[in-house]
Amino acid sequence: MKLYIGNKNYSSWSMRSGVLLAAFGIPFEEIKLQFDFKPGSEWHRVIAGITPTKRVPVIVEDDGFAVWETLAITEYVADRHPDLPIWPRDVRARARARSLCAEMHAGFTRLRTVCPMNIEIFFPDVGARLWAEDAALRADVERLDAAWRDALQASGGPFLFGAFSAADAYFAPVAVRLSRFSLPVSDAAAAYRDALLAHPAVEDWIADAMREQDFVPEDEPYRQER
Ligand SMILES: N[C@@H](CCC(=O)N[C@@H](CS)C(=O)NCC(=O)O)C(=O)O
């Protein structure tokens, strides 16, 4: 099985699927497609042959069968590995985990827009300015904080549903955003953010991202160059 991803530094959706597979020890071949959004680039040529959405991540099986969209990838991986607790075993916890992943997939748009994932750099000044000026960002982070606190309180932690699950893989890029932009959260959310950043699968992804040394202008609203 191949997992096509984008640059690890920037690609938050790729990170969700990559961390999920690594955290559960599922064997896969990682294929990184360098972001290059100029017309006619290698990125456009290769991605168009893999998925009709022209976005990563994408799973491609040996016979060419492809699965795209992170939520669908998560479900496919869980279906293929029913022995692994990718979703919480308890039916209500599982429903709640799916609600949070769906909420993440469709929502938190202000947080995702103004605080794009950029693993290799810390922007505390930008984060402080955004926090002061942007009510929609504050509302997203407050909702996130409440969602995390509710799940952690019900499960007892250290991850949202106790043991690491798909929901945690889903929120790994958000933990990076909170940390890089130094956005204020409750003590419980901060402890979870730090536990997530310290998970070996997340640490490995971050270490790879730090080694990339790429600069993709379309993903760099706060820098002109490296
Ligand atoms: N809803 C999609 C989002 C995927 C997505 O937007 N991926 C970005 C990289 S993080 C991408 O491929 N962007 C390329 C482009 O916009 O051309 C998913 O869940 O997989």
Q: What does this molecule look like?
A:
This protein has about 230 residues and is an alpha+beta fold. The protein has two domains: about 1-85, Glutaredoxin, CATH 3.40.30.10; about 90-205, Up-down Bundle (Glutathione S-transferase Yfyf (Class Pi), Chain A, domain 2), CATH 1.20.1050.10. It has ten helices and four strands, in the order βαβαββαααααααα. It is globular. The model has no long low-confidence stretch (mean pLDDT about 95).
Number of strands: 4
Average pLDDT taken over every residue: 97
Tell me the CATH architecture of the largest domain. Up-down Bundle
Strand order of the largest sheet: 2-1-3-4
How would you characterize the largest beta sheet?
4 strands, mixed
Count of all domains: 2
Low-confidence stretches: none
Strand content: 5-15%
Ligand inventory: glutathione
Cα distance spanning the termini:
34 Å
Shape verdict: globular
**What structural class is derived from the secondary structure elements?**
alpha+beta
Key structural traits:
226 residues, alpha+beta, Glutaredoxin, Glutathione S-transferase Yfyf (Class Pi), Chain A, domain 2, 4-stranded mixed sheet, 4 strands, 54% helix, binds glutathione
Briefly characterize the structure.
By secondary structure, this protein is an alpha+beta fold. Helices cover 54% and strands 6% of the residues.
Topology:
Blueprint: E1 2-5, H1 12-23, E2 29-32, H2 42-48, E3 58-60, E4 66-68, H3 70-80, H4 91-106, H5 109-114, H6 124-133, H7 135-155, H8 166-180, H9 187-197, H10 200-212
Parallel strand pairs: 1-2
Antiparallel strand pairs: 1-3, 3-4
Helix pairs in contact: 1-3, 1-8, 1-10, 4-8, 8-9
